[in-house]
Each structure stands twice: as structure tokens, then as C-alpha cells.
Design a protein that fits this description.
The protein has helices at about 5-20, 25-35, 70-85, 115-125, 150-175, 195-210, 240-250, 265-275, 300-310, 330-350, 355-365, 365-375, 380-390, 400-410; strands at about 35-40, 90-95, 130-135, 180-185, 190, 220-225, 235, 255, 280-285, 285-290, 290-295, 320-325. Helix 8 (about 265-275) runs parallel beside helix 9, helix 9 (about 300-310) packs across helix 10 and helix 11 (about 355-365) packs antiparallel against helix 12. The chain starts with a helix and ends in a 6-residue tail after the last helix. An eight-stranded parallel barrel has the order 1-2-3-4-6-8-9-12, surrounded by five helices. It has a two-stranded antiparallel ribbon with strand order 5-7. Strands 10-11 form a two-stranded antiparallel sheet. It has about 425 residues and is an alpha/beta fold.
Length: about 425
């Protein structure tokens, strides 16, 4: 796209937004400084490098598009390609199963910082900061209960695993001089009716209390709820009400995964409420269809509303943004770009909302005026502002990135057996 045309369109958009009190330069500066944590598992369908086995434990990936990253070098190569086509600030989110284990099997309760030192060094070299996740699924001891398991030997195994993951995250945070956000999600649940709902949740609470007792200043834990998992449709131990209560009581960050709630639930409204009671939020942004299918994020009403509510609450400084989808049916690099750009666009759209005027209308009870401005804001030249953002970063504008992804598939992905 012609750079002069992009610049001209931006200046027109800038004037149009200024007329309703919006500083587009300020909005772009905020977007620039708002990091998005890229999820490593989109590149390899959540397989990891521990056993290279199929998923189990309540989740699954669908599709078999060629070009999956098969080792750490290929994964890093793919991430570098992704970031080369994106402007802004990025982090990289790792699961424990993506460690550098060499030719030796390292069980989950034996993992150490040394298994991620390569990632720490690589991230520093590539200008990325790391986030982390414990991994309770796809393991012989996963079963249907992990941290909530009444069997002490199984429960202790997963407690030790999660403690070690927190220490790894702390080492990452110390090395990058910025706290590493470590997410704890366990798949625990039942396929059919259980009569021990309270018992399993009490065990999970006690396990979390033990895990979080250690003071680790360079990491921040967050807890993620889920509605159900595959094979665990009737009961989830770590439900929304359980974790919302636990995080509020214990001053712990809460993870909102946009795919982990009923289709009719309003996740954006949850954010506006949770921010009153928890210190921070971690977002896992995906697109659920029918179930937690983790389709690629798009700029739909749900994503737009989520970031509008966060921006309206003046809470971008208390919210960490991460992506969490794993579509194996399309080009995986393209999936990264589409989902990240959709998230950035949603953030920018929220930043360009004429909020001061909307608040004025609302405070004065001018409901017609509020609705009218909300509707008119939808057709403001938002796209011209985002095009300018990408041009400033010397990356493809508009649909031009498609050709880059296609070329990478031809040169790299198609040659992976």
C-alpha cells in the first residue's frame, strides 16, 4: 500500500477523531506499550517436547494442516517469523512441556530452571519477555483429578510440579527484570454426576494454599477457571465461582479465558466486576464456537466489548493480555497474525472511543445522545489509524501480510515432513 496514501488517510482520521476529543497519537502510543503475550502452543498444536504425544486431559486440537513445529528450533523460527510481521510489544508464553530436555526424560516433578535457560537467553536476544504455565494435562498421572486428587501420592506429584514451575517463572522474571506471569490451570473434573463437589474443591483449595505459600518476588501467579473439558462435561473443580472467590480472598490475579464460559455469558461484564476485587487480570483471548474450541481470535463484538470495558475502567495497567487458541486446520503462522492483529485492533478501537463525551452524556442522563455517539463511533476511520501504526513499524499494511505468510509456507513450512 502506498505510504503517502496511508499518511494522508491517517491525517484525515486524526482530524476527525480530534473533533470528538480523541488524540490518535496518544492512542497509538498506548497501543505500542501494551504487550501481548504470544502463546507458543499455536505453533505445534500443544504437543510440546516432553513426550511428543497426543493431547489428553480435557482438551484437544483439531486439524492436521502441514507445517507443525516439531522441535524447539522450528518453534523459535516460527515465532521470529510471526513477530517480524507484527508491530508493537510482545511477550512469549510457554507451557512447562516446552523445556529443553535433551535426550533425557525429565518428569514433571523434576523440572528445573536449567531446562528453560535456553529460552531465557533466546528471549533476551530477541527482545521478548516470557510468561509461563504449569502443565497438568497429557501425562500418565493426569487422570481426571490432579491438584484436587484425594490420592496423596498423585496430588503431591502435581503440587511439586506446580511449585517447581513457580520457581522457574521467578527465575524468568528475575532475568528479564519484569515479573513473569505464571498461569495455573488444571483440567480436574468429572464426566458424569459427582456427589463430592465440595470435597474436591476443598482439596484444590488446600493444594493452592501450599503452592502459593512460597514468596517468589519476580513472578505473579494467576488462576484460570473453566466451564468443562472433553470427558469432564458434568463437573469442573476449578469453576469460575471457585477461582473468583479464591482470588478475591487471597489477592491473587484471576485469568479470564474468553473460551471458558457459556456462549450467553458476558465475559466483558465479568472483567468490569472482577477488577473491583482482584489485584490484576490475565486475559486468554480466544474464540469459542459451541465449546471451548479455541478458534483464532477475530475482531468480533465479544473481543471488542472486552477491551472497551477494560479501557472504560481505566484498567489497562492492571490487565495482562495473552492469546490462547490452537487451530491446527489452517496455516499456523497466519493464525498467529490474524489473532494478534484482531486483538490489537480491539484494543485500539477501545482507546479511540470518545469516552469523555460518552461519560458526560451518561452523567447528565442524556441516553439518546449516548446511544447516538456509540453508534456513530463505529464508522469512524479506525482502520486508517491501524494502517498507520503498521506502516510506522515497516511491516505489511492491510492484507499484504498474506503474501508473506504464503511465501514462508512455501520456503519453510512445506518442507517439514
Amino acid at each position: 500500500m502506498n505510504s503517502e496514501l496511508i499518511e494522508k488517510n491517517y491525517q484525515i482520521a486524526k482530524e476527525r477523531y480530534a473533533a470528538i476529543g480523541i488524540d490518535t497519537d496518544k492512542a497509538l502510543d498506548t497501543l505500542e506499550k501494551t504487550p501481548i503475550s504470544l502463546h507458543c502452543w499455536q505453533a505445534d498444536d500443544v504437543v510440546g517436547f516432553e513426550r511428543n504425544e497426543a493431547l489428553s486431559g480435557g482438551i484437544q486440537t483439531t486439524g492436521n494442516y502441514p507445517g507443525r513445529a516439531r522441535n524447539i528450533d522450528e518453534l523459535r523460527q516460527d515465532i521470529n517469523k510471526v513477530t517480524s510481521l507484527l508491530g508493537g510489544t510482545f511477550r512469549l508464553n510457554l507451557h512447562e512441556t516446552y523445556g529443553e530436555f535433551g535426550n533425557k526424560f525429565v518428569d514433571r516433578d523434576e523440572v528445573e530452571v536449567k531446562h528453560f535457560q535456553g529460552w531465557i537467553d533466546w528471549a533476551k536476544e530477541n527482545g521478548l519477555k516470557l510468561d509461563f504455565n504449569s502443565t497438568s494435562f497429557s501425562h500418565p498421572k493426569s487422570g481426571y483429578l490432579s491438584l484436587s486428587n484425594p490420592d496423596k501420592s498423585i496430588r503431591d506429584f502435581w503440587i511439586e510440579h506446580t511449585k517447581r514451575c513457580r520457581r522457574i517463572a521467578d527465575a524468568m522474571g528475575k532475568a528479564q527484570n519484569d515479573p513473569c506471569i505464571m498461569n495455573i490451570w488444571v483440567h480436574d473434573g468429572m464426566k458424569d454426576i459427582t456427589v463430592e463437589r465440595n470435597r474436591y474443591r476443598e482439596i484444590l483449595k488446600n493444594s493452592l494454599d501450599e503452592i502459593l505459600a512460597e514468596n517468589l518476588p519476580d513472578m505473579k501467579p494467576c488462576l484460570e477457571a473453566k466451564l468443562f473439558g472433553i470427558g469432564m462435561e458434568s463437573y469442573t473443580v476449578g469453576s469460575h465461582d471457585f477461582y473468583a472467590s479464591y482470588c478475591a480472598k487471597n489477592n491473587v490475579m484471576y485469568t479470564l479465558d474468553t473460551g471458558h464460559y457459556e456462549q450467553t455469558e458476558n465475559v466483558s461484564d465479568m472483567a468490569a466486576s472482577l477488577l473491583l476485587f482482584v489485584p490484576e487480570l490475565m486475559l486468554h483471548v480466544s474464540r469459542p464456537i459451541r465449546w471451548d474450541s479455541d478458534h483464532v481470535t477475530i475482531m468480533n463484538d465479544q473481543t471488542l466489548d472486552l477491551f472497551k470495558e477494560i479501557t472504560r475502567a481505566n484498567a489497562l495497567n492492571r490487565v495482562h493480555i495473552g492469546l490462547d487458541y490452537f487451530d491446527a486446520s489452517i496455516n499456523r503462522i497466519g493464525a498467529y497474525i490474524v489473532g494478534t492483529r484482531a486483538t490489537q485492533k480491539s484494543v485500539l478501537s477501545a482507546l479511540l472511543e470518545p469516552l469523555a463525551k460518552l461519560r458526560e452524556y451518561e452523567d447528565k442522563g442524556q441516553w439518546f445522545e449516548r446511544l447516538a455517539l456509540l453508534e456513530e463511533a463505529k464508522s469512524l476511520p479506525f482502520g486508517a489509524v491501524y494502517d498507520y501504526f503498521n506502516m510506522k513499524h515497516n511491516i505489511p499494511v492491510g492484507e499484504e501480510f498474506i503474501a508473506d505468510v504464503q511465501q514462508y509456507e512455501k520456503d519453510v513450512l512445506s518442507k517439514r515432513a
